[in-house]
Amino acid sequence: MSDPHCCIIVRAERVDPARNLADCASPRGAGMFTAACSPSGQPPATHYISSGPLSPQFVALLLAGDAAGVYAAAQAGAAARGMELTATLDDALAVLAGADISEDDPYIAMARVGVRLVVVDEL
Amino acid sequence: MRAIRKPINYTALVAAIAAANSPAQLFAGGQPGVQFEPWDQSTLFQDGALTPVTAPGQPVGLMYDKSKGLAVITEAAKSSEFATAAPWTAVQAAWSPGQFVLTRVTGNTYLAQQLFGVPQGATINVSITVTANNSTTVGGVQVVQGSAANSAAYATENSPSVGFTGVWSLSMTAGQYSPWVTLRVQTNNRALTVASFHVTVSGGFVDGHHAYQLSNPSRAYFARHPMGGVRNLLTYSEFPNGLADAPTRGGLISATTMDGPNGSTGGIAFGHDGMTGSFAYKTAAVLGDHALSVYVRMDDGAGPPVFGNLATPTSGLNDFALVIAGGIAMANTQVEDVGGGLYRVRSWRNIPSGNTFGVVKYATNSSRTFKVTGYQLETGVAATAYQKVTTIYDVTQAGVPDVYGLRTDGIDDGMQTSPIDFGAYDEVVVCAGVRKLSDASIGTILELGTNISNLPGTFLLRAPQNATQSNYGFDSRGANTNVAIASASGFPSPNSAVLSGIGKTTAAICLLRVNGAQVASSTVDQGGGAYGNFPLYLFRRAGATLPFNGYFYGLTVRAGAMDAATLNAVERNIGARMYQPMSLAA
Fold first, then answer.
1. Which end of chain B has fewer CB atoms < 10 Å from its terminal CB, N or C?
2. pTM of the model
3. Can you list the residues of chain B whose pLDDT is less than 70?
4. Mutate to test the interface with B, among A1, A5, A33, A54 (most CBs of B within 10 A)
5. What is the DSSP code string of B178-195?
6. Are the Cβ atoms of A27 and B410 closer than 8 angstroms?
7. Long-range pairs for B452-457 at CB < 8 Å and ≥24 separation?
8. Which residue of B has its CA nearest to A1?
9. Cβ atoms of B225 and B552 closer than 8 Å
10. Which residue, B59, B355, B67, is CA-closest to B210?
């Protein structure tokens, strides 16, 4: 059974603790929330999105809005792999409170939140 | 006199193309490069622990490079006893034949070996010969595995700690898929000589610059779709998960099985009691002209469904209605008898708003009950041949060949290889098969290095080259700050194409070919020099920005000149997997 799809959009001001929580929770959570979004599609980013397969246990925690569970998973992962968990439980609560978490297609989720990918036209 | 032409021997033609495109011939000169063929499921893995990809809809965390023929080798270190300085990455270390002398001044001092990818969980066996050069120093050495040279993110082992000298052997477990193993000097050991550094891995290494993605959500999915692309905008079109596949539903409905367009399949049974309205809707965010169609089997077997008053969907002269959100009836309903008591009901209208579509049976409709399956919503007014959609990654159509590849989401999917050393070459040829699904943002198919603007000796391939443009582009840069750009418009999404780029830094050559025909070129002076030694990033710039939204069917990158016949064979090999019409010009 493949990992379930999950789409998470977090507010830009919460992206650092969100990245730290994901990174600590699982080696497969590294590198999340790198795609910037904003209502106009222009910088600065107001949100960051991550969309794709995640472990069933983590998806269940996210969809349930279980910030304590997410934080506990990050604590356990950080301890097991000698990583620094800089985010706090309050951070986890704030990240999830301001996040849009669903099993939807990312474009449907972005439309719901009212943001688009930040488009950069660079060489 | 009429010329007599021999019939084309397709078997021989395919064999000839395959032979010309085989790693044994294409990379026979030892040229650096990669060859990815995601239609070959044996080269795809869900993660760094080599969990196989067995079906569409599974994520791809690792894609083997076939340019080295998938040869299994047991000793990855190409210069384990330092006959040459290459391919080691050394910091504060001086090479001489047979040894590296590591002298710590400040910061990290290390000797890093780039391997060909160590699977997660594999046993890494290391044997090192070390001499401490200063008897007054203490401390030993450390072997680490991580995501880059000198990274200890995944595994660490320490030698004995006091002025270590001798042969040190150890085994460590790879904490994650990674191409890097590093020997580094511990804090207090300031000078030592390393005479050998052997690394082997349980099961051996599969040779090649494999593409990987360690972050779960950033993995593309293995996908299949019918030749010609996906038209059905709905998912779970045959209700494999029962009522859950009708997210908006109510009334006298139940999950059922029925003989549908593809044999036995799931469906929704509609009942009737004269008091309860029933509905089963799916969701899609669309505007404009769209056609909706469903397959219906009437329970009474008494002929096709009847629509006696299309102007009034609730009329008792109708068996049911096709609607969009808010009970707005689709217009122009037609019924097609597809045989065996199965009917396809088609309808269309201009969608002003709303995003739920499906079948409704009003309490006031006729008393006939029925089963439905095979929902299809598509752009335009015509209901075309039915496509079975399980997920967006698994779409099939009866009688139409399947096309296999990777589906990237245009959000955060991407992969990268370990660094590929093009340093002996000023010329490169890339050839990729893709289906571009959006022109909204720049789409990176590949880029050597993190950013062509900042790095000399790099190249990239994009779909599209520019935001909001319907173009493709190949860019090449030598020693100059100038970047040669060959881009061509006229390929609005969705568009499938075999794209080839040819770059030569010393001759101001930068060419783009689409489906075997040259469409753009640039003669900008690239400044000469060789291409660099960088990772190849797929689907995102530096794994961070400019994501590609579409399908990826295959890629060959090879350094050095390539004759026209060979390039044509490479293009046709990828095009054949996509059923892509190609130019016959070589």
1. N
2. 0.90
3. 1-20, 76-77, 134-139, 161-163, 187-190, 325-327, 354, 584-586
4. A5
5. EEEEEEEE-TT--EEEEE
6. no
7. B452/A123, B452/B477, B452/B483, B453/A122, B453/A123, B453/B483, B455/B532, B455/B534, B456/B480, B456/B481, B456/B527, B456/B529, B456/B532, B457/B422, B457/B423, B457/B505, B457/B529, B457/B530, B457/B531, B457/B532, B457/B534
8. B58
9. no
10. B67
CB-based contact A53 B219, cutoff 8 Å: yes
User: What is the CB neighbour count within 10 angstroms for residue B433?
Assistant: 29
Interchain contact, B219 vs A2, CB within 8 Å: no
B483–A contact, CB cutoff 8 A: yes
B218 near A CB under 8 A: yes
**Phi/psi of residue B73, each to 5°?**
-120, 155
Interface contact A65, partner B, CB < 8 A: no
Q: What is the distance between the alpha carbons of residues B87 and B126, in angstroms, rounded to a whole number? A: 17
The confidence score (pLDDT) of residue B14 equals 62
Three-class SS state of B45? strand
Among B412, B460, B541, the residue to mutate for chain A (most A Cβ within 10 A): B412
Q: Within 10 A of A94 (CB to CB), how many other CB atoms are there?
A: 19
3-class DSSP state of B556? strand
Interchain CB contact of B282 with A (< 8 Å): no
Q: What is the 3-state secondary structure (H, E, C) of A29-81?
A: HCCCCCEEEECCCCCCCCEEEEEEECCHHHHHHHHCCCHHHHHHHHHHHHHHH
B458: CB partners within 8 A, 6+ apart: B447, B448, B449, B452, B476, B477, B531, B532, B534
For residue A30, the chain B residue with the least C-alpha distance is: B215
Can you give the pLDDT at residue B586? 43
- How far, in Å, CA of B90 to CA of B75, rounded? 19
Mean pLDDT of the region A40-69: 92
Contact B440 A120 (CB under 8 A): no
Please tell me what DSSP assigns to residue B218: G
Which residues of A are less than 8 Å from B58 in CB distance?
Answer: 2
Mean of per-residue pLDDT scores for chain B:
90
Contact B449, B535 (CB under 8 A): yes
Q: Is the peptide bond before B240 cis (omega within 30 degrees of 0)?
A: no
Separation CA B241–CA B95 (nearest Å): 63
Which pLDDT does position B580 carry in this prediction? 85
Q: How far is CA B581 from CA B230, B234, B373, B550, B572, in A?
A: 18, 28, 34, 19, 9
